[in-house]
Amino acid sequence: MSFPADRPRRLRRTSALRGLVAETRLHPADLVQPLFVREGLDEPRDIPSMPGQVQHTRDSLRKAASAAATAGVGGLLIFGIPAEKDPEGYGAWDPCGIAQLAIADVAKEVGDATVVISDINLDEYTEHGQVGVLDATGDVDNDATLRAYAEVAIAQANAGAHVVAPSGMMDGQVAAVRQALDRAGHHRVAILAYAAKYDSAFYGPFRDAVESRLTGTRSTAQQDPANSREALREVLLDIEEGADMVMVKPAGLYLDVVRMVADAVHVPVSAYQTSGEYAAIEAAAAQGWLNRDRAIRESLTAIRRAGAGSVITYWATEIAEQLPG
Ligand code: PBG
């Protein structure tokens, strides 16, 4: 017998062989493109900490949505940025608020070609940048915030969202949203729960993108990066409350959580490759320190390999355009 007896390299010899035995593939339909739309803009505006991403005008958003749909992306995740913030975050459920107008534009533009998802939160709309209504001491009032989220959910569903995604990590938010949608006759609108959402530094560029006023962190609502078991608790609670799909966020630093959740549940699992994950790769690539294309593909493949069925990523359209449909 020749030595070595085992030669795993045999299956790595050509790209055809590697392709034949690849366990994980990227497909446009598994990618979700987040998009920002800002009220009162005449031209799209660059987001400096997210090179390549912009705050859209309503018009440029429609075009970006159409390009994403043409590339075959599985979904779009819409974030609105109001021209004025206010204490209650009223713009989040105002029928004429920027997100509602944009959701209606996009839903009309793409039809059923891709899935229109909207983020339920108040943080883009409040003066203080918190995710909800504040109590007398300045803390977020969990239960009062649930009533606001119910209004936001109905406004977004009325505007034409196919899926709504509560992201504030308030206790009971999925049940509150499900009940509100059903009472308003929107039983067909699905819920993608930001179920295991960590208190992460990797949302920094997003907060620039939405002109967030937040000072400090969200550590009393979002999960401690030190913990993985409570992710399961959050996910199972959300499913019990009516989540149709669950999400882990961020993605790349939490692949253990993605795997654990994917093994434990029977609903689709999504992972959100956040603004900070995007910015880190873009910044290193811009310096010539990383091969941009390889780093992006590897990061997305790793998230899928860990068990995420879909990946929310700012590179969705770009990558989808390069993939076979
Ligand atoms: C809340 C929300 C945030 C993100 C998505 N939805 C910010 C936060 O929780 O502070 C972060 C997304 C990213 O960093 O790409 N509206």
Features of the shown structure:
TIM Barrel, globular, eight-stranded parallel barrel, single chain, binds ligand PBG, 325 residues, alpha/beta
Write the layout of secondary structure elements.
Layout: H1 15-21, E1 31-38, E2 45-46, E3 54-56, H2 58-70, E4 75-81, H3 98-110, E5 115-120, H4 142-159, E6 163-166, H5 173-183, E7 190-197, H6 204-209, H7 229-241, E8 245-249, H8 255-264, E9 269-272, H9 275-286, H10 292-305, E10 310-312, H11 316-322
Parallel strand pairs: 1-3, 1-4, 1-10, 4-5, 5-6, 6-7, 7-8, 8-9, 9-10
Antiparallel strand pairs: 2-3
Helix pairs in contact: 2-3, 3-4, 4-5, 5-7, 7-8
Bound molecules: ligand PBG.
Characterization of the model:
The chain has an 8-stranded parallel barrel, surrounded by 8 helices. Strand 5, helix 4 and strand 6 form a beta-alpha-beta unit. The protein has one domain: Aldolase class I (TIM Barrel, Alpha-Beta Barrel). 38% of the residues lie in helices and 15% in strands. The protein has 11 helices and 10 strands. It has 325 residues and is an alpha/beta fold. The structure holds ligand PBG. Ligand PBG binds next to loops. Homooctamer. This is Delta-aminolevulinic acid dehydratase. It is an enzyme of class 4 (lyase).
Briefly say what this structure is:
The chain is of the alpha/beta class and about 325 residues long. It has helices at about 15-20, 60-70, 100-110, 140-160, 175-185, 205-210, 230-240, 255-265, 275-285, 290-305, 315-320, and strands at about 30-40, 45, 55, 75-80, 115-120, 165, 190-195, 245-250, 270, 310. It has one domain (about 25-320): Aldolase class I (TIM Barrel, Alpha-Beta Barrel).
